[in-house]
Write a structure and sequence with these properties.
single chain; mainly alpha; Arc Repressor Mutant, subunit A; three-stranded antiparallel sheet; two-stranded antiparallel sheet
Length: 437
């Protein structure tokens, strides 16, 4: 039994094709991507036993020429198709090579897998073409953040919208975003100057061109119209936001850190639903940045949950997660994320960590349990440590230099029912605190 009110299954806008027809449109749109994924699969299989593990994530010139010759495509079509294959999950990066993803094997029979693959491409629209030259990255980011509102206008209009109307709304939305951040447009080093009208028009053309390239909209003379796929995708995003707004957690408008804390008591399924809804309301790039910023804070629980949310993001988060692996506080989490993203089972992903990194993660997890959990959980966490002896564990904990080591050891000592072990924990905490041996 549950007290949560159910809402009727939402229906897409009138005239929206059914999932089977939409999936067929995706298969047609991403046909080159699917052919290239199968080409990579054949090439890897034919090279079995030679040490060849698959094409590089960014195809070499030789690979491009070979694929073009075998598939009857131009070099440009190969590069574009390969990019779409990676974004959609038809191929997945494993270490230094790209291999067929699980989505490829479901491509011909699972419409929902096909649609989710296309939504991943749609979410990554800003990566399709380089942004215009000579425009500040901050201005580009503002336009990317503003585009969901323009897409909503196109979806609600159920027909073409003129480019001047879209440009006017884009200017208003960028101004609103700056006001929300309390920025004063004086052009100081801390604040990027507002883009002029010509730059804003160039950015709008770029954004519409990217969305057109992924089949989300069509461009006519000075007007834009959502395709059936684009209209369906925008509706899905709006529905996710509505579900989050009506859910008990209701974290849609919260910062990343507040949203993660709000999800701390949820079981994994509902928590992932909250993550998806929160992500749907934001450009994927800024959402990833905000999640990693939350992970850099002092709250170890938020750090762990931030990487759970990044698992929901998937491939678009990979570059920033890989960069985060260079930060000591985030490195163990980032390495586990990357190992799982490369196809490792969660149980095997631990092999990606050195002993020191595993110990650091163990202490960080203990800090989260000490701050937010119960004493029994903390004792179980100590008992779960895979070490030969408690003294050796304590030596390794002291050696990694986690900033919360003293607090964790004291909390463990207070929680553990074994007086001798509690005494050893307190002694270790004192030694860390005083720098003694």
């Amino acid at each position: 039994m549950t007290n949560r009110r159910t809402r009727p299954a939402p229906r897409p806008p009138e005239g929206t094709p059914g999932p089977a027809e939409l999936a067929q449109r995706v298969r047609a749109s991403l046909s080159d991507a699917a052919r290239l994924a199968r080409w990579a699969e054949r090439r890897t299989a034919n090279a079995a036993g030679t040490g060849y593990t698959g094409p590089r994530p960014l195809l070499s010139d030789a690979d491009v020429e070979q694929a073009a010759a075998e598939l009857g495509l131009t070099s440009g079509q190969v590069r574009v198709g390969w990019d779409r294959a990676r974004l959609s999950g038809l191929v997945e990066v494993h270490g230094g090579s790209a291999r067929p993803g699980w989505r490829l094997h479901a491509w011909d029979r699972d419409d929902s897998a096909v649609l989710r693959g296309w939504v991943a491409v749609f979410d990554a629209w800003s990566l399709i073409h380089p942004a215009p030259d000579g425009i500040a990255p901050a201005a580009v980011a503002e336009v990317v953040e503003a585009m969901p509102q323009l897409l909503s206008l196109l979806q609600l209009s159920a027909g073409p919208v003129t480019v001047p109307a879209l440009l006017d709304m884009l200017g208003q939305r960028v101004a609103e975003l700056r006001d929300e951040r309390c920025e004063v447009p004086y052009g100081t080093p801390e604040t990027a100057p507002s883009p002029d009208a010509a730059s804003l028009a160039r950015l709008l053309r770029w954004a519409l061109g990217c969305l057109g390239a992924v089949d989300a909209l069509t461009l006519g003379p000075a007007r834009a119209t959502l395709t059936p796929l684009g209209s369906w995708a925008v509706w899905v995003k709006l529905e996710q936001i509505c579900v989050a707004a009506q859910s008990p957690a209701g974290n849609i408008e919260q910062s990343a850190a507040a949203m993660l804390r709000g999800c701390a008591r949820l079981t994994p399924g509902p928590a992932r639903a909250e993550y998806r809804a929160w992500l749907a309301a934001r450009p994927v790039g800024s959402a990833v940045t905000e999640l990693l910023q939350a992970a850099r804070g002092e709250d170890a629980l938020v750090r762990g949950l931030a990487f759970e949310a990044l698992r929901v993001v998937g491939a678009p988060a990979e570059p920033e997660v890989r960069a985060a692996a260079g930060e000591s506080a985030l490195r163990p989490y980032a390495l586990l994320w990357l190992a799982e993203h490369d196809g490792a089972d969660p149980e095997d992903a631990q092999d990606a960590l050195t002993r020191e990194e595993s110990t650091w993660l163990w202490v960080d997890t203990a800090a989260a349990v000490a701050d937010h959990g119960e004493a029994e959980l903390l004792v179980r966490h100590l008992d779960s440590a895979v070490r030969t002896t408690v003294p050796r564990l304590l030596d390794e904990v002291r050696a990694v230099g986690h900033p919360r080591t003293v607090q964790v050891l004291i909390a463990l000592a207070a929680a553990h029912p074994d007086p001798a072990l509690a005494k050893a924990l307190r002694r270790a905490a004192f030694q860390v605190h005083t720098g003694g041996e």
